[in-house]
Each structure stands twice: as C-alpha cells, then as structure tokens.
Amino acid sequence: MELSKNFDHQQAEQKWYQHWVEKGYFHSEPDEREPYTIVIPPPNVTGVLHMGHCLNNTIQDILIRRARMSGKNACWVPGTDHASIATEAKVVGMLRERGIAKSSLTRDEFLEYAWEWKEKYGGIILQQLKKLGCSLDWERTSFTMDPDYYKSVIEVFIRLYEKGWIYRGKRMINWDVRAKTALSDEEVIYKEVQSKLYFIQYKIDDGGSSYPPLGEGGITIATVRPETILGDTAICVNPNDERFKHLHGKFAFVPLINRRIPIITDDYVAMDFGTGALKVTPAHDMNDYQLGLKYNLEVIDTMNDDGTLSAAAQLYIGEDRFEVRKKIVKDLEASGNLVKIEEYTNQVGFSERNPDTVVEPRLSLQWWLAMKNISEPALQAVIEDDIKFYPPKFRNTYRYWMENIRDWCISRQLWWGHRIPAWYAPDGSFAVAATREEAWEKLANVKRETVNVNEEIGRDSTQSIHDSRFTIHDAGFTIEDLRQDEDVLDTWFSSWLWPFEVFKGISNPGNADVKYYYPGNTLVTAPEIIFFWVARMIMAGFEFMDAKPFSEVYFTGIVRDKLGRKMSKSLGNSPDLLGLIDKYGADAVRFGIMFSSPAGNDLMFDEAALEQGRNFNNKLWNALKLVKEVWKVADAENDSSGFYNAGELPEISRWLPQPDYCEFAISWFENKLKKVKVDLEYFFKEFKLNDALKATYSLIWDDFCSSYLEWVKPEYGQPIDSETHKTTLDFFEEMLQLLHPFMPFITEEMYHILNRKDDDICMKQYEYSEPPNTLYLEYGEWLKKAISAILDAKNKNYIKPKDEITLYIDSNSINYQPSGLDEILKKQIRAKQISRANFSPENLNYITVPVEDSKIYIISEKEIDKSVLKDELLKDLAYQNGFLQSLLKKLGNERFVQNAKPEVVDLERKKQADTEARIKTIEESLANL
User: Fold this and answer.
1) Rounded to the nearest 10 degrees, how much is the dihedral formed by the CA atoms of 375, 379, 380, 383?
2) pTM for the structure as a whole
3) Cα(787)–Cα(830) distance, rounded to whole angstroms?
4) Fewer CB within 10 Å: N-end or C-end of the chain?
5) What is the C-alpha to C-alpha distance for residues 218 and 339, in angstroms, rounded to an integer?
6) So what's the pLDDT on residue 642?
C-alpha cells in the first residue's frame, strides 16, 4: 500500500471514531480490574464547543485513554446540565421569534416548548465532543433532569429540610433583572467600570413647621446610584466624626420626595470615604440591609422584578433604573440638591448568566441552605490532602471560601428546572414533600402551633393559628387547594450530586455501579467554578455517600487570546473550534492546546500552535514513509542484490549483519525511550500533562527523527539490515503508543499501517519500563552536541560538505568509547578519519571545537581563518561566564537552597560543574590558537 503524501485527518477521524465505538472500547462495566473514573463537568444543554471545552475535555481524554492503556477499567461519564437560566432564556427567545410571549403561557405549556428545544439542541455539544476524539462512555450519558435524577434532587431537598438545614427567609440577594431571578454570590462577576460619584445634599429638619431651605445646615452624601435615594430610610455617620456630632439624633429629608429620615451613628461608616455620611437604603444594598436590621429601619423596596421603579419609589414609576438615573440627576440639579459630580472608578456586579446585565441587590423571600452545617468534612478533606488539588495553590482559595462560607440561596424564579417541593395551603401553612398527596398527609397530621406565612398571601410573616388539636381537615379546603412553590432550584443544587447520581447513588442506593465506580478518581475543571461546583460536590459526597467524590482535582487555566483577553463572543476573539478541527485536524488542535497549557496557568491561544501540531503530524507521516517505503531491506541469500520494499518483506531466513553504528544508535535510543517512559509516569502522576506532551514530542522529533533515523540510515542507494529495520519499527510502535492519548487519530492510523496488526493501539497495554542506562544517554547527548558543534564550525569556516576533514578527539568525559559512536560521528560529519590518539598540532591547519569538557580538533586541507573561530569562542566564553554567575547567585541564596527540593538543588549544582568544565575547555582552546 502506497502512502498518501500527507495524513488525511478527516478520513482518519471519521473511520477510527466509528470503529472505536462499534468495538465498544469506551464502554465500561464493573469487573475485577481497578476502576478509573472521571465524570465530565456537564456542559449546559445550550452550549456549543469552544476553546475552554477543548482544553478541559482534551485533558480528560488524555487521562482516560492513558488509564485504559494502563490496564485500568476506565469509565468517563458524559452528560449535560439543564442550565435553568441559560436554557429558559433560549426558550423565551425561540418563543419570541414565533410571536409568543412567555406571559401568555401556562407553566406546563412553557415546559412543553422547553423540552422541545432541549430535544432539538440539547445534545449538540456532546456530538461535537466526538469530533475532538473524546472517548466517553456514551451508553452512560446522563442529564440533570432525567426522571431518576429529578427524583433524587427532590429527595435531597426534603432530607436537608427535615434536618432543619434548608429554610425559607427574606434576605438580601443578588437579582438578575433580565432573567428575573435570584443569583448566588458566586454568580456575580465584578468588573471595574468608570462611573460617576454624585454628591447630594439632604436638608436637615430644624424643628420648624415648614420644609427648611438648603444651605449650610444640610448634610451631603456621595453615591454612584442616585436613583436609590427614593428608598432611603436613614443617614448614618461615624460617632467619632466631629463634623457631624451636632446632627446626632436629628432628622433629614430625602430630596424630591421629602421623606423624613433619622440620622444615626455607627462605626461601620468610614470617615475618610466620600463625605463621611452614608445614605442607608436597606432594600437595595447588602451592607445597608445589615444596618437596617441593627437599627430597626423601615425597608422600602423601590424596584420591580424587571429593574423598573415600583410605586413605592413615588417618582419615575415603571421607568428603567438607568433611565431614572439620568432623570433624577437633572431633577436634583434643578432642585438645588446636587452639589457636584466626580469621575469615579468602582467595582460593579454583573450577572454571570447575562454578562451585560448589572446585578441589583434586593430584599427577597427565598429558600436557603445553611452551609456551616454541611461544610466541615469537605474543608478537612482538602486541608488534609485526602482530596489533592493540582496545582496546590488553589487549596488556599478553597480554604478561605469554606472558612467564610455563607448560606446558599437555592431558589430561582424560573419555570425550567427542578421545582421546589413545597406545598402551600390557603391559610399560609406549608409542607415540604415530593408529591401533593404526601404534602396533604403531612399537613393533616402536623400539630398546629405557630406557622410561617409568606407575604404572597397577604399576611404577617408569623401569626398564631388555632390550637394544637386542630388539623387541616377542619380548615374548609381540600387537597386540590394546595399549590406548589413556583420557584425552581438553583442549577448547581442538582449538579452537586453529579459524581454519584450518574451511577444512581441516591435513586438506587448501593447498586453495583455506584459501589464500583464511586468515589471517582479525577475531576478536571476550571478554577472559576471551585465554589459553584467543586466545593459543593465534595460537601454532597460526604453528606449523602459518606465518602469523598474524587481523589484529585486538576484545575485548568483560562484560554485567552494573544493579547491576554479572556475569549468571548462579545469580543469576537473566540475562534470557531469546529472550523479549526476541519482545517488542522483534531490531533493538531489537541496538540496545540496542550502544548500551550501549563497546569493551572492561563494559556495564550495562538493558531500558530495548531500549525505546529499539523507540522508534527507531517513529521510523523514522513518518518513512516521513510521506514515503510523509502528504505529497502537486503536479502543476503541473493548476495545483497535483491532489495525488498520495507512494507512488503518476504519470510526469509538470513539478513545482512547489523553495522556497529546501528548497534550504538539502537542502544542509545532504547535507553532514551526508557527514560521518557519513566518521566511520563512522574508527569502523569503530578498532572504535568504539558510536560508529558513536550517530552513525547521531543523524543519523536528531536531524538527519533532528527538523530536516530539519521544515525541508522544507510548510505544512499544501499539497503538497511533487517534487524535494525525491525527494531526501528518496534521503536516507532512504542512511540505511537506513548503519543496516542494526546493524538489518538494519527497514532491509530499509523499503528495499523506500521505492522498491519489486528489489535488497536487505543487498547494496547503499556509495558513496565525499567530505568535507563544513563551512560548511553550521556554518550548520545555528547554525540549530538559534537555533531552540531562540528557542523556549525565547518559552516562558519566555509568548509564545504565535500571537503575532506580528519578529527582528533581529546575527551575526558567519554573515557570508554562504546562501539559505533565514532562511526556515527564520522558518517554524520563526513570525516575521512577519526583518531583518539594524542594530537600534535605542529604544521597542521586545524580548528578547535569544545564540546562539554572535550576538545575536538578539525584538520582540514583547506586554509582556516582562525580569527573566525576565536570570535566564536569568545562569544561562547562570555555566555558561559554569564550563565555561571546566575547559577552561583541562585546557589548562594540560602532561601532557595533550604526551600527547594533536593533534586532541584542537585540539578543546579550539576549545571554549575558542567559550565565550569566548559569554560575551562574554551579557555584552553583559546590559548592554543
């Protein structure tokens, strides 16, 4: 079979992915092997593949493929998240295009449309993951609103409520005016913006019967949100601020509406910020709300759900908050209350789900989970390294959040999602239950003492109803009068169950799958959801499964553009990932993203990295063509006159003997391969996947293609011996196996071309690698440096390849000369002769080339300009001296020597010794010029 000019990635991707799936390689069932489990961070059903997904899922696929090839029972569970806010927005948009308003539909009618949208679009991203080569167990695909999953979420809510850990209360929350729902603190993204600081004077009540004029007796506050003054119920100053002591206990008037409000004192107010006087709006600021509770201030909610002003504002009713800001500033100026305006840079909260929407702090009746009750085991698991973070720097971030954890607002004002299982009676009492019938039964049997009644049915927040013998059946209403809570649960309240509920750990406790696959091994995720998801999954694991959900968490970096900006549609800097796969191939894309991605650090995406991946494909392909098509293998039985194509060898009994130079090249590369295998074990253990790829890349490109193949390559037109050829194919196969987790398609394609085997590389098991013989590694490195240095010297001294040279080698480092080393050196630099005898320079035209602590003398029949050589040696000497000084400075730093790992310090000391030896050699070479 003649190989094509280049690797056809599109043909290979389609062929091999279908083959792997048909073979069932990705599916896992419990057996006697050690399991290796990864659950995918479920992408939103609204999602399409982008560069962040590419990085995250490539890493997971690398880990799962390597585990599979290491003999483990690898299970990578796919699935999607229902994404309440994002999906509801998509459905509302779809309805708008059809001329349908959500408000015109019942809840059930809307949900029919939502399920229609989900079935049509919800699985797109999973199909796109196949294009990337992700080896997910598709038979285990989960969705956070599957029937069993839904029931489990409701059951968890009920369990926590019955423990007293879920409660309902009116508290300050973050409000998304576009989605018209509450957000958790973690769903608010703070951005630095240029704002204006408005200085507004409030008149002081002087005790007279009429409204006093503005003047020196007023009090001035500074605010960036002048529209909120309509909800002010106090002004607060620091009790130690001498400027305002004459106003303690007095009252002021809110501009434009003339509401009379008290002037209170509290240490919370900073005397050096703004004017030192703080307006207090308990319904629209988190900190003001706390002051309101402390001083029993009136709470006036001036905002509607959609960000327009309510009737409580008295002015600008029904107008958008930002339009009101413009208008109220003009009106304040006209009334004489506006003192001045200054430019101001501040942090403003935006909705994580609707990035252009400014979040509104708002007092709202919501459902909450008391997190202190559930967080301690999850905190200790990470502190004590029972769950390890990679990189470990994220442990401190996690610890700080967990130690300062706040209660979780778990309700959302949406229709798409897991509906809160609370049922309300007309008298305001309620029961938490999975069904209407169970709620009715609970309400019927509960003793009627004091019940909480929410404001939606128009009663006080608490009131006493009947006596303890009264039951609901005496109240004059029926089961049909019970109404379920309109809210749904925060999406994260379902995804925190993901590691065990994908195996039905709640819906079918103790089943064979959850016992075998849980806890999982590795979670791969982004650091920005360490609180949204990672921390909560750990909490849920200990609470509901009495065990951690995973053993390691690998945090990826953020994919940024070349300017360092986070990729986003709004910036237009997010490339079309599927287009890149079509252009460069999945392997090249995977290579490019991983080659640029050090663990836990952000990566600057550059399409040039994908070109590098494609070039690597071409390098591999050309190497394959060389050993399979270009090289010919000699048949010794025909006196070496009959050559066979390397891909069509007959079964013959005897071949040409193996040259000495091939023996050395094989021994060197065999040990190089062993070293890389050992290194890869360490890199994978420490999740240094970027280092693992670079080590594999260097092994193939630098060591195999650039050195080994050149060293064993026969002279032009001559055959290669069969033993070397067979060993070369074996090396090639081993390298493809190491590379496969990173670049699955080209490695599978080449594996089958290489040996035409019936098995597949994706299931081929790694063999244990013994430590390498480091002497051979040293010989090989010396040889590579010698070849490079001699060729460079020949070039700079205008010695042409055809010009004959003789080498004399004076080496202290290579005392024992392995067979074949000099033959390779001679062949690669085209030397007539190599001698290790004592060199006598009298009357010879020569160049001295230092290589480590060796000196190589190049004898040429052509006249050599030694001034060129001297200049090069002086440049090299200056560089080596500078490098030595940097090493001495580092090793002279006691902090570095004491804190660095011993092997790191030893490496720096070896660099020092090597550099000093090289300097000595250069100086001797200069002295001999």
Assistant:
1) 180
2) 0.84
3) 10
4) N
5) 11
6) 46
Beta strand 408-409 with 219-223 is unpaired
Residue 653 pLDDT > 50: no
Phi, psi of 31, rounded to the nearest 5 degrees: -150, -160
- The C-alpha atoms of residue 304 and residue 202 are separated, in whole angstroms, by 26
CB 332 within 8 Å of CB 202 = no
Q: Whole-angstrom Cα distance, residue 395 to residue 916?
A: 41
Sign of CA dihedral 869, 875, 876, 881: positive
Burial class from Cβ neighbours inside 10 Å (0-12, 13-18, 19+) for residue 114 reads: buried
User: Quick check: helix, strand or coil at residue 728?
Assistant: helix
Question: What is the Cα–Cα distance from 394 to 388, expressed in whole angstroms?
Answer: 10
Domains and CATH numbers, the chain: 188-359 (3.90.740.10), 584-772 (1.10.730.10), 865-929 (1.10.287)
Reply yes or no: is the peptide bond before residue 391 cis, omega within 30 of 0: yes
Strand segments, DSSP code E, in 425-477 are 430-432, 450-452, 462-464
Closest CA to 309 of 235, 269, 362: 362
Neighbours of 907 (CB within 10 A): 12
How high is the pLDDT of residue 772? Answer: 94
Closest to 735 measured CA to CA, from 670, 663, 673, 672? 673
Euclidean distance between CA atoms 707 and 777, whole angstroms: 13
Nearest to 263 by CA among 286, 280, 282: 280
- Exposed / middle / buried, residue 190 (Cβ in 10 Å: 0-12, 13-18, 19+): exposed
CA 848 to chain centre: 52
**Average pLDDT score over residue span 12-31:** 97
What is residue 603's three-state secondary structure? Answer: strand
Strand partners, 834: 807
For the record, the structure tokens of 656 come out as: 């040409």
Residue whose entry in the numeric block shows the structure tokens 């039951």:
471
Confirm if 319 and 325 have CB atoms less than 8 A apart. no
Contact residues for 374 (Cβ-Cβ < 8 A; gap 6+): 160, 165, 539, 543
CA proximity to 408, closest of 173, 144, 145: 173
Contacts 24+ apart (CB under 8 A), 727-730: 727/666, 728/627, 729/627, 729/754, 729/755
Distance, CA of 11 to CA of 18 (rounded, Å): 11
Across the range 842-870, mean pLDDT stands at 77
